[in-house]
Amino acid sequence: MKDQALLWFPEGKKNVALLDPLTGHYAQAGDLHRQASMLLKRYGMERADKRPGRSGQISFRTLRTRKTQLHTICNDMKVALPELRALASLKPRHVGRLADHWRERGLAPKTMEINLSMLRILGGWIGKPGLVGRTDGHLTAEERKEARAPRVRAWSAKGVDAEDAVGRLCREDPDTGWMLWLCLRLGLRVREAMLLDPRMRAADHLPVTRGAKNGRTRTIPLTPADDEFLIRYESWLTRTGHDRCLIPARVTEAKYRSGYYYRLARFGITQRGLGVTSHGLRHEYAQRLVASLEREFGVGDGVKMVHGTAVPRMADGVALEVSARLGHARPSITYQYMGRPIDPVSGVG
């Protein structure tokens, strides 16, 4: 273990795999879920990649994701590793057997990669940072190719006219329509759109602070058309009695979000319906922004081979600008949005 906050196989405690000496709470050998819960309580909020200038803790939303992932993996361990009695006993060979089990279950390579990342974090908690090793060692070449292939989710790539679809929906359900317009026109995430207060805008830019992912605030430059759009949005909020944002005063954010996705499903805006999601409008915004910036900078004519396919390059200056407007932590995430690699040679700006 990293410290003595939790003790594995404490002396004099028969059949006890994990003990918290401060509280006296323990987990019996074989109770992997209880062991996982104790580890999450002690280490779950710690950031895996501690970088200078970043908070040492993750968000509660990420913590909930970790809980779901780790307990799901514990269920897989019961099937693939029936002899395992304690998470502290995990070894690299166990990870290999888990990967084989996921492959037999038909898990997507991307899901396998995410599970391996969670096991890598778990390895740090139990004092085995090298537990997983390189992810490439557990995935075949074909699986690595599929896991890292960009997923373009823009509506236009799915054959859906975003303006027409959102316009029609807005006439039937203005609340949902405005949410989608905000995602399409300004590239906002769903939570950012829910909490956006149009009165916060300045003459030529819009600060995005409320609902920003991981607290990464950003500023979006506004064109005259964008400013006119936000004026109309603010006027609509005032006419319909909304207070500062789309979420009514007596409705919780969680309840509004649940209702929002219910309404989207009713209109067929799901992967199973039209094959698109509201997040895909953010991808649509990114695609259009890149095209606009490339015309402005006069770049974007080159190509690069990615997994045997020729795709257009993206100049690094364009990628940096798009990443800043989208609120990405690093430009490489923009590649996943665009399905295009960044060209470090033809930088602009």
Notes on the structure:
- Helix 2 crosses helix 4 and helix 3 (92-105) packs antiparallel against helix 4.
- This protein has 13 helices and nine strands.
- It starts with 6 loop residues before the first strand and ends in a 6-residue tail after the last strand.
- With 349 residues, the protein is mainly α.
- The longest helix has 21 residues, at 60-80.
- It folds into three domains: 33-148; 161-278; 281-343, no CATH class.
- The strands form four sheets. It has a three-stranded antiparallel β-sheet, with helices on one face.
- The chain is elongated, with a radius of gyration of 24 Å.
- It has helices at residues 32-43, 60-80, 92-105, 109-125, 141-148, 162-172, 174-186, 190-195, 224-239, 253-266, 279-297, 316-326, 332-338, and strands spanning 7-8, 16-19, 26-28, 205-208, 218-221, 303-306, 309-312, 314-315, 342-343.
